[in-house]
Amino acid sequence: MKKILIIEDNTDVRENLEEILQLSGYEVLAAKDGKEGVNSANSWKPDLILCDVMLPVLDGFGILQILSKNPELNSIPFIFLTAKTELSDMRKGMNLGADDYITKPFKKDELLSVIEMRLARAQEHHASPQTESKLKNTERAMGLLKSIFDAAEERNYPPGYHFFSLHDRPRNALYLQSGLVKEYNTSDFGREYIFRIHTAQNYPGIWEAYRGDPYRTFSTSITDCTTLSLPIESFREAIQKEPYVVYVLQEILYRQKVNAERKLLAAAFHSVRKKVSMMLEELHGLGFGNNEHSIDINRADLSSMCGTAKETLTRTLSDFKDENLVDIQGGKIVITDLKGLQNMPD
């Protein structure tokens, strides 16, 4: 049972929170001021903390600063409860390391959704770290997988080239040498939702190629692309000779699954600003958004990456530019404040 610490001086709010969380299956401990809250966190080691901003003895910002200096407590998800909605207060809390804000009065469903999401993220973050041996095994398997494509045919494709469609059977295994490729699905109304972006040294559709299963997405090039293409029979024959490669295929599938779940959570619970900031953060992690490699992707693809309308994306990017989070020249995006995007309130 997950443990949640509530730090709230208002008796009615505190008791209401306790009741909601206990009925939802959480173990709950409550503190009525900042000092008691810090002591409870030290002794009880909760899985998540809900904390009011304005508190007697020690306010929420002070509590967060104290806990952030304690290695045993600084990774606990910390959610502020506040009636204040000024951007300056929210930014201050995020800069100190808060994970989220819930504005009072809150709705039960909103409260539980935010808690569940933050607990899920914390569990993912605290998954057992890779040992040196595991890292070496992963590197070895990655090398073996890449070597399978050494004799593959090199092919060049323009933007908009269609690699495969939903329910198609794999005919080739692909290794992307350069460019960007998107994997996506479409709604009944033709709206596109991008699940993942492949960059150089990625393998679009590799799991389906290994399993022989029909593709679960569509795949199209975003930019000029160069691939190594191996006939499916040759690929499967090579896999049988190097069974250790299955290890890295499973790792690739796991990472894709985690990323897809993260995007679905974002689509369900996050604000438009948070969705766009997460999309920009993801592209930065792929090596884009800097002065050398700006984000030069059409707005239709960018909007489907973050699950919003093209016009809404354009307005949000304009706001980010005004706030000095990004710079936009000729449609190309350069991230100027990565930390500000990472700390964007939900």
- How many structural domains are formed by the residues? 3
**What is the CATH first-level class name of the largest domain?**
Mainly Beta
Structural class: alpha/beta
Give a quick account of the main beta sheet: strands, pairing sense, barrel closure. Answer: 5 strands, parallel
**In sequence order, what are the helices and strands, one letter per element?**
EHEHEHEHEHHEEEEEHEEHHHHHEEH
Question: How would you characterize this protein structure?
Answer:
It is a single chain. Helix content is 46%, strand content 21%. The chain has 13 helices and 14 strands. The protein has a five-stranded parallel beta sheet, with helices on both faces. It has a four-stranded antiparallel beta sheet with strand order 7-11-9-10. Strands 6-12-8 form a three-stranded antiparallel beta sheet. Strand 1, helix 1 and strand 2 form a beta-alpha-beta unit. Helix 6 packs across helix 9 and helix 11 crosses helix 12. The model has no long low-confidence stretch (mean pLDDT 85).
Layout of strands and helices, then pairs:
Layout: E1 3-7, H1 11-23, E2 27-31, H2 34-44, E3 48-52, H3 60-68, E4 78-82, H4 87-96, E5 100-103, H5 108-125, H6 132-148, E6 153-157, E7 162-164, E8 172-178, E9 181-186, E10 192-198, H7 206-211, E11 218-221, E12 225-231, H8 232-241, H9 245-269, H10 272-285, H11 299-305, H12 310-322, E13 326-329, E14 332-335, H13 338-342
Parallel strand pairs: 1-2, 1-3, 3-4, 4-5
Antiparallel strand pairs: 6-12, 7-11, 8-12, 9-10, 9-11, 13-14
Helix pairs in contact: 2-3, 6-9, 11-12
